[in-house]
Structures are given as structure tokens and as C-alpha cells.
Amino acid sequence: MTLTELRFCYLLAYDSLRRRYQPMEKTDPERMECMEVWGGNQAVQRTFITPGLKIYIDSQPYGQAPGGGDVYYLSSCASGRITRMLLADVSGHGELVSQTAVGLRDLMRRNVNYVKQTRFVRAMNRQFADLGEQGGFATALVSTFFATTMTYSLCNAGHPVPLVFRRGTSQWSELKNEASCSRPISDTPLGVVDEASYGQLDVRLEAGDMVLSFSDAVTESEDGDGRQLGEAGVLRLVRELGTQDSEEIVPALVERIRGLRDSNLRQDDATFLLGQATGGGPSMKNNLLAPLRFLRRIADHTRIA
User: Fold this and answer.
1) 3-state class (DSSP) for residue 173
2) Which of 96, 170, 220, 290 is the 20 to 30 A CA-CA neighbour of 147?
């Protein structure tokens, strides 16, 4: 390869990485419709609004691939009062990930109107038991926001622990249930143990509170000395950001992590999902139309590579 060709390849690679990690310009949030499922495993930077919640999602597959092992979905029920969010990290790539993403999407569709999500997570574990037979497994965070009571319910199947921001104290902390640690086989990655149990942590959110979820590419990023950040390191960085704007937090965190080490967030799929409570609930119109929406098909706005 000539020197000119090497320079050309370098410029292409630099431009690709620059576009991938440049801060996203603010755009008007999109309103999710009732009886809708959205998501997939492709690169995306979007903001959505559902009753009582604003959701920001940023997902970048490894190496500019068309699709990655990080799978994300959002759904809204017939009245709009139930918003479900799924962030899964499936080991491997290619056809295995695509099949798993399709299975997750189908489960999201079948459970779109169920408030309790432990049923959904147990079904995921049963469905993905065959991943182990193919040498793979998945971790996942399943979150459900019930606008009527401003309740955020979380099931964690072996995924990095999310962070919660309380507007009243202006403090970030880890969102986890210490009591669940006493159970011998609980909250394990999907498909590892057939009879694993999955607890549910319920927290009440106030307007302005936020919950930040992310894939393990974030916790496995390294500091300047080559040590992995881990969950404690990510929490420390988020606390140091100095911003409470939900649309600025993820871009600022990405920039901060990338500044620690050039290889950070480049060696694996990287996904962030931020939900902010906004207050309010479904409109009277949506409540009245909910019984009729049960009769129609769920809108599928997913993209799977």
C-alpha cells in the first residue's frame, strides 16, 4: 500500500470516528404513539416523549457495523400510561444477535399492556436458554414507567447497575436493591440458569428525576492509568459533569470517557438510555380510546440488522 493510500485510509477512519462521537444537535423530541414498539440494534440518537417521561437513547455498534449486540426497545401501551424500556447486551454478533433481537421484539409486543414486568423477564430467560447451547448469553435491563403513579420499576438480569438522579437533592446514586443480593440464584444473565429468579425494584420518581442505563462498554472503559471505570467510576464521572439537562448528559459523558483513553467506547457496542420524569399522565382522550386500541395491531417501528 502506498503512502497516499495509507493517508486516505487514515482520513476515512478519522472522519468515521469523528462523526460517531461528535455531540448530537438538539432536536425536538418525538412523541411515541399508543400501541407502538420502537427500537432495534442499529446506530441511533433519538429523543422520545411518552406520558410523564422523556427518553433519550444513544446507541453505536462496534466498528461502524450496521447492527450490533446491544438491543434496545421502547413500547407504549393502549392508553400511554405504561412505557417499557429494554436494554439488552447479547454476546456475539451476526445472525445469532439478529434472531435474539427479533425474539425480544416479539416479547415486547406481547407484553405491551402488562404493568408487571417480571413475567416478561422470566419469558426472556426461557426463550434465550438456547443461547447457552450456542455459546452465548445476554444481560438485560427491563424498566417500566407507570405514569399514573410516577413509578419506575426495574428488573436487572446481570447488567451494569443504572444511576438515578434526584432533582430534590441534585445528587446521582446507584439504583439497586441491596436485599436482592441475598438470593442465591437471582438477577443472573439471561439464558445462564433455567430457573433463575428476577426481582423487581420499584421507585417513585418526581418531576425532573432521571434514570441512566448503559451497556458494559461504559463500565469497561479505562481511566488514564488503564484501570476499568466500573460502576463506581461511571458514577463519579456523571457526578462531575455539572449538567442537569437530560439531552446534554449522555453527549457530555461520552466526551468525558473518550477523553480518558482513545480506545474507550470503540472496542464494543456502546449504548446509553436516559429517562427523565416530566410529570403528568395520559390524556382523557387516550384513556377513552384505549379499549378500541386493544382491537388493532401494534405498530412496529423497529429496525434490526
Assistant:
1) strand
2) 170
